[in-house]
Write a structure and sequence with these properties.
46% of the residues are buried. The chain is 42% helix and 10% strand. By secondary structure, it is of the alpha/beta class. The chain binds flavin mononucleotide (FMN).
Length: 429
């Protein structure tokens, strides 16, 4: 009996010292108090142990991933903590990241039976170019912070799987190289610069490189409060200024990039020193008009979440929209993009294509967006988990999983083309 008890106490002491306790958010003081206590305390402690998360083993090969979440912990292990903070973080308390995910639960599927779904076509056409899937590789900055090959690996995966890819202004690969590695057109995401003469050259360069469209991101113009990024950066003991010349790494905080921090941002380099034309204030719709007048490329606006702004975009000749809150990294609205989507679709009134992004992690999420009127769905973090975990192979595996899940949902819903996916295929939960 005494042996039993001491063995149990030794086991409990071992469990209490496990990092899993810390991960589960238990106070170490509480545990030592319980260990000092008697038999009841042991029981309480065992009870607590029962609430510990079970540590699943991490996948070691890209092909072993069963869903996109399998790649997240592997990437987390591989990516430096400050860079993980940049990837995972949102704004304030990160509530809008959670809201983006929760938004999908407000919709359920209405599966249909006895329809021949032996052949399906999930292709989508943007401005005359057809892709076999409506899953878009969204712009994510600084990808060499997640894997040595960064955007090159992503462009190669986009080529292998034939996805539409959008390259960030603050990519660590140039638009020219991205297009070469993709082996076809890549859209260019635009962060405007404080000097219009630089922005203009950047747009013209993307056009010369062969980009058919620019995606002007407008959701950071008011700034954003990236608490998780800053908190995680403090845990990183490496010398940030080896790469970030502008000081601590704070990309995207103001929607502009510190000119001193451009060493690893090839899209921000190499412009002629023309007489500066400094912007007065932050961009308005007049800036969008200017972009339209500057280029023959299609001009899309990313970050629209209201009917009013969608209608204004159409009025200003915008060619397409991204319903986006920057993956919960812009304002902390706590409003899911899937919730904003119907009103944006209404504002655009079927006149321009609409990509919805934010929290897409399942094929059913993509299906719900299309049922609510989106033309396509954009993904950010999931393909970066694949990249961080296994490079190009990981990106391809994530794309394969999402496509398989989406096409399965199409079949289960009795839809064989994207145009057949309608509001009748889903219902409020
Ligand atoms: C680390 C990170 C960097 C990003 N960089 C950019 C960027 O440079 N330009 C841009 O328009 N959006 C950027 N985004 C937003 C994504 O394009 C997209 O809107 C968002 O990631 C979608 O949400 P998800 O990550 O939940 O899929 C970034 C997102 C993340 C997570």
């Amino acid at each position: 009996m005494t042996t039993d008890r001491s063995a149990r106490r030794r086991f409990l002491a071992f469990v209490a010292s496990s990092p899993l306790f810390a991960a589960a958010g238990f106070e170490p003081g509480l545990l030592s108090g319980l260990l000092r206590g008697g038999r009841d305390a042991d029981r309480d402690l065992l009870d607590l142990a029962g609430h510990l998360p079970v540590q699943e083993s991490l996948i070691t090969r890209a092909q072993d991933g069963l869903d996109v979440f399998d790649f997240e912990p592997v990437a987390r292990k591989a990516i430096p903590v400050a860079h993980w903070g940049y990837l995972a973080g949102g704004t304030d308390d990160d509530a809008t990241i959670a809201a983006n995910r929760a938004g999908f639960d407000r919709w359920v599927l209405n599966p249909r039976r006895l329809i021949d779904v032996s052949r399906i076509d999930a292709s989508v056409t943007f401005f005359g170019t057809t892709y076999p899937t409506p899953i878009v590789i969204n712009p994510v900055g600084s990808q060499k912070a997640f894997h040595a090959q960064g955007e090159v690996a992503v462009a190669r995966a986009a080529r292998a799987k034939d996805h539409l890819m959008v390259l960030s202004t603050v990519a660590t690969t140039s638009i020219e190289d991205a297009i070469a590695e993709r082996g076809g057109p890549v859209w260019f995401q635009l962060y405007h610069q404080s000097d219009w003469s630089v922005t203009k050259q950047m747009v013209q360069r993307a056009e010369r490189a062969g980009a058919p469209a620019i995606v002007f991101t407008v959701d950071l113009l008011g700034g954003s409060n990236r608490v998780t990024l800053l908190r995680e950066s403090r845990k990183d003991t490496r010398e940030c200024t080896r790469c970030h010349l502008g000081g601590p790494p704070l990309p995207g905080l103001t929607g502009r990039v510190d000119a001193a921090d451009n060493r690893r941002k090839p899209n921000l380099k190499g412009y002629e020193k023309l007489p500066p034309q400094l912007e007065r204030g932050t961009p308005t719709w007049e800036f969008v008009d200017r972009l339209k007048q500057t280029t023959r490329m299609k001009v899309l606006v990313k970050g629209i979440v209201t009917e009013e702004d969608a209608a204004l975009a159409v009025e200003h000749g915008v060619d397409g929209l991204f319903v986006s809150n920057h993956g919960g990294r812009a304002e902390n609205s706590r409003r899911a993009t899937i919730t904003s989507l119907p009103e944006v679709v209404k504002g655009a009134n079927g006149r321009i294509p609409i990509v919805c992004d934010g929290g897409f992690r399942r094929g059913t999420d993509v299906f719900k967006a299309l049922a609510l009127g989106a033309t396509a769905a954009g993904i950010g973090r999931p393909y970066i988990w694949g990249l961080g975990a296994f490079g190009q192979e990981g990106v391809e595996a994530v794309l394969t999983i999402l496509r398989k899940e989406f096409e399965l949902t199409m079949k289960q819903s009795g839809t064989t083309t994207l145009s057949q996916i309608s509001r009748r295929h889903i219902a409020p939960a």
